[in-house]
Amino acid sequence: MRTDPGPLVLIAVVVALTTSLLAAAGPLTERASDRALADAVRRAGAQGAVVGTFDRGDVFYDTRARDPRAAAKLRAAVSGAQRLLPQRVARVVQPGTTSATSTPLQLLDAGPGRYLTLAYLDGPAGPPGVRYVSGGPPRPTVGAGRAGTELPADAVWTVQVSLSRAAAKALGLRPGDRLPMKDQQARPVSALVSGVFVARDPGERTWLPVPELLHPVQGVSAGVRTASAGALVSAAALPDLQLALPADGLTERIYATPRPDAVRWSDSDELLRAIGSLKAAPQVPGGAVWDSELDRVLEDGRSQVAVARGQADVLLLSLLVCALLVLWLAAELLVRRRAPSVLLTRERGGTLAEIAAELFIEAAGWVLAGVLVGVLGAWLVTGDAGWSWWFMVPFLAAAAAGARGAALSSRATDPRRTPANRNARRVLARGRQLRRAVAVAAVVAAAALSFLALRQRGVVGEGGDLTAAGAPVWWAVAGALLVVAGVPALAGLLLDATRRSSGAVAFFVAARVRETGARALPLLVITVTVAQLTFAIALTSTEQRGQAAGALLSVGGDARATLSPGRPNAQLVPALEAAPGVRAAVAARIDDLVPATSRTSADTVLLTVVDAAAYERLLAASALPDAPQLGRLVRGDGAGVPALVLGGPAGLRDGFSVRSSGGPAVKLTVVGTAPRVRDTVEPVVVVDAATYARAGGVAEPDTVWAVGPGAASALRAQAGPGDAVVVYADELAARRAAPLVKVLVGLALGASALLLLFALLGVVMMAASEAGPRASSLGRLRALGLRDRQLRSVLGGELAAPVLVGALAGLALGLGAAVVMFGQLSLESVTGQASAPSVSVPVWVLVGPACLVGAVVVLTSVEWTRLRRVALGQLLRGGQ
What is the model's pTM? Predict the structure, then answer.
């Protein structure tokens, strides 16, 4: 160790860096997976609630009695139902919110289009907090003396309700108003408005079961303005609510919203099974029937996490293989430095096992030191260190050193003689070539099988599908072996071409490259590391470009505003276009899940009603994909409204019609392919607003897009109180701040830095392994009279030739893997797009080859300076 510590220190450094990244990747990935699942549950909101519906036993009674203890009984039933939840589900949900709600009831006092949902809410800490701005809370309709009143099943009973300020404004109601209503079966219902309130905390989860209480929904259907809101019933008025509604018109439920931070990736599969068992449980008389969309939310989140973990496996496996190749090269350098002492030990009677053990122990000590330093560094940075199957892999470098030393000593002291017969020597050479060909064919076959597994299964993080995840690195290794096999022939052709040249530099470079430049391991290290570096850079760039494209398509421009119903918008677009920094703006109507039917097919589509000319100008002024066929929308043939269609079944284009927003069915004629509107997997239909309106369709805009550097500020300035403004920059920042995206980008950047370092170390070790023979060769050429400038060119050419071959081959292999394999890596799960992003290859992918060339220049200068220090007279006398 003391004699030549360089290779050993190099081994320790490589092991430490690799171990540090791999040990940190496990905990970071686990935490990111937990945060991603928590974020998915948090974004789902009330959709992910575990909902229990109670079985009412009085549905078919002929008479009904007012129960003054209705609220207490309901609270007791909720408490009992929660206690019966499976423990695995109970750990991830919060104490439930109790609700008793009616179906939407149509108000009969002021024309059609107004609906009211009566709701009683009770949270773990009591009813939701409100402050009355007029009137007061709902009170019992009768006094204590008539608390147990009995009524026939068809009797009408009045219940007092209170409205939020927004609901009262939307419906035009005030305290004291009597509300005659009817349900969906035209049965009468009566209510009295007791007061108007504002919520003390609108974000309180007690409001989640009935969001219409605070946020009424307004719109236009068939030219008629509609409004739907909720009315709050107090605990004191709950007995009246049970009497006021028909026996089957009241639904009592418990909403147990999940706690996002309690959801963990490691036990999410167990949680899915528990929710499935809960939903499949038989109904208990008087108990709750459970249902939830939490399992679907978890499945979606788990699929995204699994894909992201699979992509992380691709990067980590590539990094690990490249680290092993570098360690193998370092072990070979160590053995070459130890060759004299190893051979001397063998000649003095040392066994091959003793030689292998000595080299193994020497290297293993430094490997262990590197592992400990790497794990300690990961623990200091992340607070944890992951242990996995890769932990023992670095010790393969120590085993390689022992095996390589034993093989060297065995060959050097082999008593068998080389055959004198030329045919026998030729047979031995062909045998060696055949063995090499079989080895290369086996690696190529493994690469093909790995790529086939990737195409069939994709990347799956859970369970660690190393076969599919290893496709890029197998691709690189197979290509590098083919390059290694072809370099000797290429060097021979180069040597033959320079034999009769007048310049000596090219001939000597070709001769040296043929002799030493085709060494398999250094060229393999350089080629594979550059290929994986290129792949990692292209992966990072593709994901970032995909996020930008997906965010832009999702917003529809630099900014988008969703207009509140009934808002006047005739002057909104001209005002936006006149604002500074706005290049174009357009108003549109976007209806989702619109039924579309043809003679042979049916589907739901995303219908976009827009001014075709203005939309074409907006697309041309932005980075959104152009749509040159938009001009066809205003040139119809009279058979139907011209439409552009993207996606959907082929039969849908055969004379289909759409019906949106309660309007009449409008027949459409397909005249081209629609541009992408939003980032959706739904079929997209685009029609011209004026043409569609003349055909009877509803074309009132509900969305405004704007592009330009000042679009966001201009749209915010013009937006009304009920308008929702979405900005492209905010959407892109949110996508890039997602937990999985941050970890993957950080992992790709860290892996790229280490791969670049490994490539540089490969160049350095390649130069160091042949430093002695190269010095002797250049010394002879110098003694024979070659000028210094020519010698320096020979030195630089000898070092640069294999590096350039490996760098260019690695660049081509990395780009080829990116083009062929990115489609199977499910990158859209990370970018948030509906389809796979286009492959992006940035200019800075050339940084790797450029750094290697720079390393060759530095090494040439250093080695040339050292060689020049040897006196010419010493060289003439035969010295080194």
Answer: 0.81
